[in-house]
């Protein structure tokens, strides 16, 4: 499918794509660049890449596909550098969790011809661990990948990126850039923000050791994602700030509503509030995920 993949960011998301494409024989060679030398060397040692490069220009030389898998704010400098060295025939895509800000960065740095060959994307697959050691060839199997093509893209380039993700077992869909950021603020960014806040609130309790000692499964389910990478999530929060602020306000209103019911010890209201939430989750979540047949109801995204 591709002659040479240039991976910019050789951590969980980039490393997993490289591993999966290599395992399936979909790419001839993978060259990886990450900011830190030890990450590049770890990626080589773990078999994610064939060889490390010492710069972005070295990584992309001779590449026909470039995958950007750094935290979203780092893509500013990466795209700036890429504009000076991208081969004419190379396609570029990314795995960033926010799309509006990444597209803005691409528009700011790339020439018109380069921009046309940049197809933004976002795999809805990942975990709370990061770095090359966390990469697996199966990460994307049975998961959705959202592409957010821009007006400048050619249909055949979008189709090639779609085929790349399908080759690693993903189900590809398309959303408008702004709509992606609106929906993902609800489904991914709010839960992560809430998990970080929940753990922070418990960590400030005097009895915090006991809280963690006697934690039940529900605590783990709700807070696993608070172990996610702080730099990555700082960038996501800042890049999708307005959408996340709106979702936080919406969520806070529900917490206030629950608090009022509890304060007035209104058992009937609490029960019907919980029953409504349970009914919605029981019905909607499995139905909305039914096309992803390999996915059980509960596990990491
Ligand atoms: N972790 C997750 O579950 C998911 C993450 N994403 C997105 O994928 C992207 C990568 O995330 P992960 O792979 O989890 O992170 P990671 O921390 O595992 O890997 C990021 C890599 O980027 C490198 N890097 C950082 N700044 C750089 C720079 N200026 N130039 C070159 N390399 C640089 C780091 O050295 C590291 O190797 C992020 O944009 C994130 O929002 C998308 C879906 C899921
Ligand atoms: O660890 C989890 O459960 C996740 O939700 C991973 C994740 C993190 C960021 C994304 O943009 C998409 C998926």
UniProtKB/TrEMBL annotation:
Enzyme class: oxidoreductase
Alphabetical keyword list: Amino-acid biosynthesis, Aromatic amino acid biosynthesis, NAD, Oxidoreductase, Tyrosine biosynthesis
Signal peptide as annotated in the record: none
GO BP, sorted A to Z: tyrosine biosynthetic process
InterPro entries to which the protein is assigned, alphabetical: 6-PGluconate_DH-like_C_sf, NAD(P)-bd_dom_sf, PDH_C, PDH_N, Preph/Arog_dehydrog, Prephen_DH
UniProt-listed Pfam families: PDH_C, PDH_N
Presence of keyword Kinase: no
Start and end residues of each Prephenate/arogenate dehydrogenase domain: 3-292
Example of a GO MF term: NAD+ binding
Superkingdom of origin organism: Bacteria
EC number from the UniProt entry: 1.3.1.12
Reaction(s) catalysed by this chain's protein: prephenate + NAD(+) = 3-(4-hydroxyphenyl)pyruvate + CO2 + NADH
Pathway as given in its UniProt record: Amino-acid biosynthesis; L-tyrosine biosynthesis; (4-hydroxyphenyl)pyruvate from prephenate (NAD(+) route): step 1/1
Sequence similarity: Belongs to the prephenate/arogenate dehydrogenase family.
Protein name per UniProt: prephenate dehydrogenase
């Amino acid at each position: 499918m591709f002659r040479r993949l240039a991976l910019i960011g050789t951590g969980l998301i980039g490393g997993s794509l490289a591993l999966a494409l290599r395992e399936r024989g979909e790419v001839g060679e993978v060259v990886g660049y990450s900011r830190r030398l030890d990450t590049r060397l770890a990626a080589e040692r773990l078999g994610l890449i064939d060889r490390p490069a010492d710069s972005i220009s070295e990584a992309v030389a001779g590449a026909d596909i470039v995958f950007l898998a750094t935290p979203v704010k780092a893509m500013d400098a990466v795209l700036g550098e890429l504009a000076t060295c991208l081969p004419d025939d190379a396609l570029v895509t990314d795995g960033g969790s926010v799309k509006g800000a990444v597209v803005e960065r691409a528009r700011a740095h790339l020439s018109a011809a380069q921009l046309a060959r940049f197809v933004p994307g976002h795999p809805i697959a990942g975990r709370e661990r990061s770095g090359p050691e966390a990469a697996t060839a199966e990460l994307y199997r049975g998961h959705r990948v959202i592409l957010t093509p821009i007006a400048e893209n050619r249909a055949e380039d979008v189709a090639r990126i779609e085929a790349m993700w399908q080759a690693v077992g993903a189900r590809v869909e398309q959303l408008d850039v702004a709509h992606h950021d609106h929906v993902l603020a609800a489904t991914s960014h709010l839960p992560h923000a809430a998990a970080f806040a929940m753990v922070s609130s418990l960590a400030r309790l005097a009895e915090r050791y006991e809280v963690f000692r006697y934690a039940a499964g529900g605590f783990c389910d709700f807070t696993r994602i608070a172990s996610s990478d702080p730099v990555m999530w700082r960038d996501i929060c800042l890049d999708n700030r307005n959408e996340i602020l709106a979702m936080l306000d919406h969520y806070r209103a529900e917490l206030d509503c629950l608090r009022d019911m509890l304060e007035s010890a209104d058992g009937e209201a609490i029960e019907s509030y919980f029953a409504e939430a349970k009914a919605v989750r029981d019905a909607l979540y499995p139905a909305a995920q039914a096309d992803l047949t390999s996915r059980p109801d509960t596990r990491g995204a």
